[in-house]
Amino acid sequence: MTGNSTYCGFVAIVGRPNVGKSTLLNQLVGEKISITSSKPHTTQNCIMGIYNKEEYQTIYIDTPGWCIKKKHIIHNVMQHHVMSAISDSTLVLFMIEGLNWTFADQEIIKNLQNKKLVLLVINKIDTVLNKSLLLSYLEYLDKKRNFIGIVPISAKTRNNIKIINNIIRQYLPQEKLFFQKKCVTNCSPVFIVSEIIREKIIRNFGAELPYSVVVNVEKFTINTSNILIIHALILVSNQGQKKIIIGSHGNKIKIIGILARQDIEKIFKRKVCLKSWIKIKPNIAENLSISSPLEYNYDTFLR
User: Fold this and answer.
1) Are residues 27 and 65 in the same domain?
2) Contacts of 227 (CB under 8 A, 6+ apart)
3) 17 labelled as ligand-binding?
4) Is 250 a domain residue?
5) Does one domain contain both 281 and 200?
6) Does 64 belong to an annotated binding site?
7) Looking at the whole model, is its pTM more than 0.85?
8) 217 is in an annotated binding site
9) Region G3: start and end of each range (predicted)?
10) Any known ligand binding at 243?
């Protein structure tokens, strides 16, 4: 390492749905960048989280869950995002869950054959009660391919998170930093707000609503009182879904607004006035084209 050398690279976080990829991204970066829920396919875009330490910059890419059965156009779009992230990355962080190796995991590892640098991360080890089983499982996984490391973690409790950053740092190529050191994501503020609102909808309604609910932020301005004014349009497929989100006397959409506003105020560190409307757009799941989280303004979300 020489005087002013810097090291930078892209790391794709891949795995089947619900293994904890988004939670891991947030823990690795130390900021809430990607929304989380227990519902499959909560993440629909590739979300970048940027971790800076000294002369090193790791650009993590949270990808949608690996799709085995592609029932809708959106599944093909998400799978395309995953494959593009793998192709463009310096290193792949392959995430699995507990002591459960699945058919989907096997499919993913087949698609990583051409990637030289793959780090295997086993999440949710806090749920493994019999720790004696973990050693034999690690030996089983080690035979799958030549990993640069196998790290058991708990993304929820931050157990062994630092180990991941330390391992990856060893493999970053000597490159100029891609982002300013203060940047923590390349996502636009408008996209971040739309995702936060969508997260609250998914978390509060679970199986009652499909993951294809869309949130469009139509107004995002700061008024003369330094208050962030946000107008959001929630798109659903039918009248039944609209009634579910509104709730009795508007109580449900009010709760969503309160929870979303609290998170938005924490992120943007200012008072927020959030107003939401709901509109029906039939067959939204079939016609959905996932919007890009980028506005190519990398100074918009800084620490």
Assistant:
1) yes
2) 270, 271, 272, 273
3) yes
4) yes
5) yes
6) yes
7) no
8) no
9) 62-65
10) no
